[in-house]
Amino acid sequence: MTAATTAGIPGYTGDAQPYGGGDTYADYRAPEAGFPFAHLPDLADRRLGATVIAANDEFFAERENLLKPGRPEFDPTAFAHKGKVMDGWETRRRRGPSAEHPHPAPGDHDWALVRLGAPGVIRGLLVDTAHFRGNYPQAVSVEATAVPGTPSPEELSAADVKWTTLVPRTAVGGHAANGFAVTEERRFTHLRVRQFPDGGIARLRVYGEVVPDPAWLTALGTFDLLALENGGRAEDASDRFFSPPVHTVLPGRSQKMDEGWETRRRRDDGHDWLSYALAAQGRIRAVEIDTACYKGNSAGWASLAGRDGGSGDSGEWTELLPRTRLQPDTVHRFLLTDAPAVTHVRLDIFPDGGVARLRLHGSLTDAGARHLTARYAELG
Ligand SMILES: NC(=O)NC(NC(N)=O)C(=O)[O-]
User: φ, ψ for residue 198 (rounded to 5)?
Assistant: First the structure.
């Protein structure tokens, strides 16, 4: 069944049909228009260092599957000692206390604790029950908290930890993309996911905006002003055909071609581009343009421009790096002298192709540091 929920996001409930062969996603329930928050980074991305630090039960399938990249898969022939092999987090069936009371109590549930890879403001959640057709949870809830440092599961479970409810106990559907809009304007570090009374969830995605710790960035002094983990954002692009722009600001280097940003082959006389917001106003001193793994399809040339104060069509673009030849599968390094203070940059590539990473090493201006500090305080 499908019921309308908040923000026009469909709410799914009820079983999916038993798998009857063929395309395992043929009857998967998901909104055709996608989710209004799915363009945002996943704060629970393993590539940012997120992890499922604990769960009370993972009898059929391990909790870590919740954050695996990529789509959950289903092999109808795969069985192991514990039962059906499932690509998700799945707990055993709960039983009541006696023959007279064989069913779980109303409040019985399983839980998992998730540390976000980059703390931030959460705008939306996906509780994906793909392939859990008759063994998905009847309902789920999601809570969030902000605990500094690296708390243990025991510390997170302490009575004095304040949890904020993002999703109250809500019925979900089997083999469905159960999405929830979140309106809590707070910076969070950890989530607690509960499934009532038990069952399986394939993936958890936590879409939002990274809010870095200004004290850490100030202590660093010089850092990558564009890195997602530092609060940088890929805002818009001319093309996302093969892989998304956010890849260019992820940690580490690409190991495969699809781990960067690659546009389709242009058949006109135009060129592709990507626009970004820095963590805050800063001065860039060193630029890295990495075309790792793009050997026959690297961007041919690239230029970089910056503006101060606002994205969109306001403000003047200032050239930071003129149009420069790029080599395939190469880290290019450029030093900038006396670059102006900017809040946004634009990477233009000619005519098309791939860029794996863009790194903009520099420092926050005083105004940039003040902006970050104020936002950090405002978000509690
Ligand atoms: N057919 C099943 O999937 N059974 C059980 N689950 C697994 N993974 O075996 C269960 O109890 O939900």
Answer: -165, -175
Given the structure tokens 């039983």, which residue do they identify?
Answer: 95
Q: Does the beta carbon of 89 sit less than 6 angstroms from any atom of ligand 1?
A: no
Among 45, 371, 376, residue whose Cα is nearest residue 228: 45
- Please tell me whether residue 291 adopts helix, strand or coil conformation: coil
**What is the average pLDDT across 292-317?**
87
Give yes or no for a contact between 369 and 218, defined as CB atoms under 8 angstroms apart: yes
Tens digits of residue pLDDT in 124-146: 999 999 999 999 999 999 999 99
Residue to substitute in 57, 58, 135, 195 for testing ligand 1 pocket (most ligand atoms within 8 angstroms of CB): 135
- Beta strand pairing call for 223-224 and 357-364: antiparallel
Closest C-alpha among 51, 74, 79 to residue 63: 51
* DSSP helix/strand/coil, 153: helix
The dihedral formed by the CA atoms of 79, 81, 85 and 86, expressed in degrees to the nearest 10:
150
CA–CA gap between residue 273 and residue 346 (Å, rounded): 7
Helices vs strands, H then E, count in the chain: 3, 23
DSSP 105-141: PTT--EEEEEEEEEEEEEEEEEEE-TT-SSSS-SEEE
Distance from Cα 114 to the centre of ligand 1, integer Å: 24
In sequence order, which ranges of the chain are alpha helices (DSSP H)?
153-156, 214-220, 366-378
CB distance 84 to ligand 1 below 6 Å: yes
CA dihedral for 27, 29, 30, 33, sign (positive or negative): positive
Rounded to 5°, angle at Cα 177 from 172 and 180: 70
What is the 173 CA–ligand 1 centroid distance (Å)? 16
Predicted TM-score (pTM) of the model is: 0.94
Give how far the C-alpha of residue 360 lies from the chain's centroid of Cα atoms, to the nearest Å: 21
**Percent of residues, the chain, with pLDDT higher than 70:** 97
Length of the chain: 380
pLDDT band at 218 (very low <50, low <70, confident <90, very high): very high
